[in-house]
Amino acid sequence: MGEDGGGVAAVLDRGLEDAQRRTGLAVAFAGLVRPDRRQFVISTLRGTWTNSLSNLAVRAGEGLGGKTLALARPTTVTNYSDARGITRRYDHAVAPERLRSVVSLPVALPGQAPLAVIYLAERHEVGFDGRLHDRLAPALLTMAQDLHIELEVARRVQAAAVAPVARPGAGLVADLAAAMAGTTDAATRHELRRILAGLEGAAPASPPGDAAPASPLTPRETAVLRSAETGCSNAEIADALGLVESTVKSYMKSAMAKLGADNRVRACRTARQAGYLD
Predict the structure, then answer these.
(1) All residues at 6 or more sequence positions from 253 whose CB lies less than 8 Å from its CB, including other chains
(2) Pick from 59, 60, 74, 151: nearest CA to 107
């Protein structure tokens, strides 16, 4: 799953489809921002007539999308051919599509630099009202979250591939598991599950006679984590252990604090890797 791999492409395509559904606009295209944040390359197209925009490298500050990248805010033109305030560097690529009204938007996590830039357009003149961004906000946030996961997993997997062969740390395994729980893309979850299986399978067995590590967890906390590890909800754990749901939540919160985990998936993985659930 590289920066331009199938996972990123799927996230962009799914996000464009969602944005079109929310706005009813006919044309959509997007590109992933490069690590240097100086440009992005348009890679995903929906509703276009030609490939004139495909693989177009857009520099920060140039054209409509480049202005969005530089300012990290939406930019719109009602009539592209007569628009002022943008450079005309990419007119040659836009012209074959006969686009007229265009909006470009940054795809970013709150308070962070854009991970991608998307465009939505029509071939006739339309007015973009002030509610457009509100309608698109859920789609943009989901895109940003999934892109962040894809890029972070790719970075970690690449780092692991070039590092000396060693037992994978609990942190890496826990982070991959948390990413698997957080992504909304089924293909990404499948790939992460495969990677996790390989990492866990590569971990050497403890030498005979080694004592199990002392666990900071109470028996109840351990039982709650074991149940959560199998995918049980808090209500199901409470029913299985004869507890009320609020008590299960309390045990889970306490276990997470002891393990330095910020979610239940990471807590389960960290406890398993440390030998506390054996």
Answers:
(1) none
(2) 74
CA–CA gap between residue 190 and residue 235 (Å, rounded): 27
pLDDT per residue as tens digits for the range 115-171: 999 999 999 999 888 788 888 999 999 999 989 888 887 777 677 666 555 555 556
Q: What is the CATH number of the domain that holds 37?
A: 3.30.450.40
Query: Is 80 within the bounds of a domain?
Result: yes
Confidence label for 229 from pLDDT (cuts 50, 70 and 90): confident
pLDDT of residue 271: 85
- Using CA atoms, how far residue 135 sits from 15, 75, 79, 129, in Å, is 13, 16, 22, 11
Number of domains the chain is built from? 3
Does 213 map to a domain? no
Contact residues for 97 (Cβ-Cβ < 8 A; gap 6+)? 27, 48, 49, 50, 52, 53, 121, 123
pTM over 0.70: no
